[in-house]
Structure formats: C-alpha cells, structure tokens
Amino acid sequence: MTKPIIFLQRPFREEFIDKIQAIAPAYQIKTALTPDEFSAVEISVGWSKEFHEQLLAANQLKWVQALSAGIDSLPLAEFSAKNILLSNGSGIHALSISEHIIGVLLGYYRGLYQAVKNQEQKNWGHDAIQYDQLAGKNLLVVGTGHIGQQLSKSIRSLGVNVYGINTTGHPAEGFVETYSIKNLAKIVPGMDIVIGILPGTDETYHIFNSDIFEKMKKDALFINVGRGDTVHTKELLTAPKEKYFAFAALDVFEEEPLPKESPLWTLDNLLITPHISGMTVDFQNKFMQIFLANLKNYVATNELAVNQVELQRGY
C-alpha cells in the first residue's frame, strides 16, 4: 500500500525534513511529484495554482498548511465542500510588519522622506523639512489579530495611544479600547493614524473608501499592510486632491505588481512599498513552529492545534 504523502511546495532545510519525518513516520515527504503521486497527497504545505486541479481531483487531500497569513487566493469553497482542513501562517510576520509600520511612521514624522528628496537634489533644505512627534498620537489598528497585537506591544513603548477595531469590538490585549468594525466611520475622526491589517473577505472588500477617508483628520496618516482589496483604490486617489488626510503608505494593492501606468506612482504624499512588510528573518524556523505543532496534533487526532482557518469566514 502506498504511503500517504506530505507535499512540501517550497524547499525546507534538512533539519526540518528530519523533524517532519520523526513526527510522521508513516508518511512520505516529497518536494516534487510525478503525475501518479498526486493521488497520495494527504497534506500540502503551501498552495499553488499549478497543482490545484491535480490535488483536488484525487480526493485524498485532508489538510493544507498555508505559508502565509492571507488565504483569500485559495479555493476556500472547494476546501469546505471536501472537508479539507486549512491552517495559515498567522503570527509569523507580526514582528516584521510591526517594524515596517513603525519605520514608516518615524520616517514621516521626522521628515526623513523630504530629507531623501533633498539629498537627491543636493539641497540642504533645512527649513523645508516638516517634523512632528509620534509620542502622544492616537493610533487605530483595524484588525487586532497577531500583527495588530504585536504592533500595539511594540509602539506603545514610544508613547502612542493604541485603539483597535475588530469584528465585534471584543477586548484585545494591549489596546486602550476596542470597537466593532461597524463603528469604523465613527472612530476614525479622532485618530491621528489609521492602520489597515484586515484579511480579504466579502465583509472587508473596499472597507477603506471615500466615506472613511473624508472623515479622517486633515493631518492624519493612513497605512495599509492587510490585503490590497480592502482599499478602494479609485477613491483613495481622490483623497490627496480633496486633502482628506496628510499621508498614506501602501504595501499591498488590488493589482500586484502595481502597473507602471497607475496614477498612485505620481502622488507626492504616498509611500509605495512592493509588498515587503512581511519579509521575515528566519522564516523557516518561525513557520515550522506552527506546522510541526499542527502535524503532531494531526497525526494523533486528525485535528489541528493552531491557526485553523474558519473556511466560511475566510480567516
């Protein structure tokens, strides 16, 4: 009888292959498959459209461990119909994304972006550089999961008052106060900084739109490191013209790579980064902490220990 397969859709260090095999000795571990082997895949680490049809057609797949926190590009409806378990990499990128956000904020408030432009022109421009203080600012985290909680923990030490938005307004560690997402438009007028860290779902699609932007303070900052489609790009484009808020930083977009013809490139008060906020040092070690914990539990009980996605909700 053919042993079931754990299909690794990206390479991992030998030390982790050994740990996987020690936990699941009854499984084969494969990083590449012949056409006949897809029918034996029970666990897929990562997901690629290249193997979508073969893996789902075999009806042997029981569990997919996603490599990232975002899973909106995966076939959730098909997973649900086939009772396939799904877990994500939520938490792996929390520190990296928090540091990215803090870097963006300090760059803005300390005038570093203008200094870079001045340097390119060999312009001393001391009087032209605007500066402010991050300490004392009211910051709203829209999405109080792993990343939001890490951001709160990191940035509170700089004297920032951190508030949160989540689905129901339930309390979350490290926040002065939390509110339901249905109250977003009521809360943003009192915030100096609004950070989007939302998953991509039907409920969050274009949630950051002109209705929200026009209610923000004129000197407020908007940063999105969640999913690109949570921002209504066309309505964001009107924000600088209407002076709804002072500055935006986007690391994710509705279309990636961002097309060269996109007018977003031309906005002076917008910082564009190419989906790099989640780039994480020692990713393999952090990922394996999640996967190995789940694998140990799955082998014993056919259930997952951490980061299981509710397929109907999309996160």
Automatic annotation (TrEMBL):
UniProt domain D-isomer specific 2-hydroxyacid dehydrogenase NAD-binding: residue ranges: 103-277
One family name in Pfam for this protein: 2-Hacid_dh_C
Matches recorded under InterPro entries: D-isomer_2_OHA_DH_cat_dom, D-isomer_DH_NAD-bd, NAD(P)-bd_dom_sf
Keywords: NAD, Oxidoreductase
Domain D-isomer specific 2-hydroxyacid dehydrogenase catalytic: start-end pairs: 28-304
Entry similarity comment: Belongs to the D-isomer specific 2-hydroxyacid dehydrogenase family.
Name of the protein: Phosphoglycerate dehydrogenase
Source species: Enterococcus xiangfangensis
